[in-house]
Amino acid sequence: MKSTSFAALALVGMVAAYPGEVLRKRALSERDACPRTLTSGQFEFPHYITQISKSEPDKSFGPQYNGVFTPNDIASIFSFDVPASRADANCTLEFIFPAQSQLQTSSFEYEGGGSFFFTGYNPGSCPGEQTTWNNQPAPGPFPPFPAVHMEPGNAYTIDVGPCFVGAGTCVAGMTYTNDTNFWFFQDQGDLTGPDCPIGIYTAYEYGLPAGQEP
Ligand SMILES: *[C@@H]1O[C@H](CO)[C@@H](O)[C@H](O)[C@H]1NC(C)=O
Ligand SMILES: *[C@@H]1O[C@H](CO)[C@@H](O)[C@H](O)[C@H]1NC(C)=O
After folding, report:
1. Which residues belong to the signal peptide in this entry (predicted)?
2. Cβ of 81: how many Cβ atoms within 10 Å?
3. How far is ligand 2, taken at its centre, from the CA of residue 40, in Å?
4. In this structure, how many other beta carbons lie within 10 angstroms of the beta carbon of residue 213?
5. Global pTM?
6. What is the tens place of the pLDDT at every residue in 83-101?
7. Disulfide: which of 84, 92, 105, 119 matches 144 by Cβ 3.0-4.6 Å?
8. Are strands 43-44 and 199-205 parallel, antiparallel or unpaired?
9. What is the CB neighbour count within 10 angstroms for residue 68?
10. Mutation test of ligand 2: which of 24, 42, 90, 159 has the most ligand atoms closer than 8 Å to its C-beta?
11. Which candidate, 15, 22, 9, 38, places its Cα nearest to that of 187?
């Protein structure tokens, strides 16, 4: 295993108020607590995950449990349902990427340069069984995010924005890479125990200035 391999995964901002900014990064050693914890009732697990393949542009992957990425080919789509009742909150799009030693029920593999890119779809345009590379949800109003680099042992806040943008419907985005083989099992772990969450989440925040450390 190459100690220099940077992970990557990008993720991102379905909420998209400030495209391109990685707002927070918290690094911890493997023996520390989870890079980030999730508060019960205050986050969304992706409602729908699927892949698309540039080399098989008409293939439908259907519902999946994993994020999967290959260089310039397989990309992953993550979609969240944001209830209308959250219109008054700020939505934080976060990728939580623990070290393998911090995971009990999940795992990941990655190898490559670690460059990932995100494109947000239009709120309300949701992926489903019909989704293929050639039949993606409708493009969103923002340009793709710049490349994001990620590595195990960190949590990345990709975007913070007002939840009303997608409240009452779905908000989805596509993440792809030009240089990395990566997969992970999206898993929230044990919210009260030592098994860390891994993957992409939308967390609700009330009364916190967006973009500042709590
Ligand atoms: C991937 O994209 C990044 C960011 O644009 C770039 O710096 C890098 O050279 C690209 N890598 C490959 C293998 O194309
Ligand atoms: C959301 O973020 C904005 C910008 O920082 C802040 O002014 C507002 O108070 C936040 N709202 C909530 C509900 O946290």
Report:
1. 1-17
2. 18
3. 21
4. 9
5. 0.82
6. 999 999 999 989 999 999 9
7. 119
8. antiparallel
9. 17
10. 90
11. 38
